[in-house]
Design a protein that fits this description.
single chain, mainly alpha, Arc Repressor Mutant, subunit A, 6 helices
Length: 143
């Protein structure tokens, strides 16, 4: 979500500090993982609001297969990373959050719904539109 390793570490640290302080209020209605994820999502959103400039994340790593390495592949990967970063920036906060939680973090629809405070149907809809928007924005890279 932060698209920056240092910011991600800050979010993780703040998440665990907040979780530790709030542990007595944890109601065990959801899994601990989901509760922590919800805190992390909110910490990430708060950080994003505080910072205007955000940079690339590991989602971009390894976009071009290693057997394709060479000057042309390196240039194509740099171009794709830039396009992906710009495309992710064009998504709404809600769509980007759901996309990252599902694609990068591997959370289920239910876990994402609990983390962001919406229904599973809303998660599915946001994920659909995030993918659709990214497909359009990155169409030039389709092979």
């Amino acid at each position: 979500m932060t698209r920056n390793a240092e910011d991600a570490l800050d979010v993780v640290q703040e998440t665990f500090l907040k979780a530790h302080k709030s542990l007595a209020r944890f109601e065990r209605r959801a899994a601990l993982r989901t509760w922590l994820c919800q805190i992390a999502v909110h910490q990430g959103i708060d950080l994003g609001r505080r910072k205007k400039v955000r940079r690339a994340d590991p989602l971009e790593d390894g976009l071009v297969a290693s057997e394709e390495r060479g000057p042309r592949a390196d240039a194509r990967e740099r171009e794709l990373k830039t396009a992906l970063r710009e495309a992710l920036d064009k998504l709404s906060e809600k769509h980007r959050t759901v996309f990252v939680l599902y694609t990068v973090k591997g959370l289920s629809y239910k876990e994402i719904a609990e983390a962001v405070g919406c229904s599973v149907g809303t998660v599915m809809s946001r994920l659909f539109y995030a993918r659709k928007n990214l497909q359009g924005l990155l169409a030039q890279f389709a092979r």
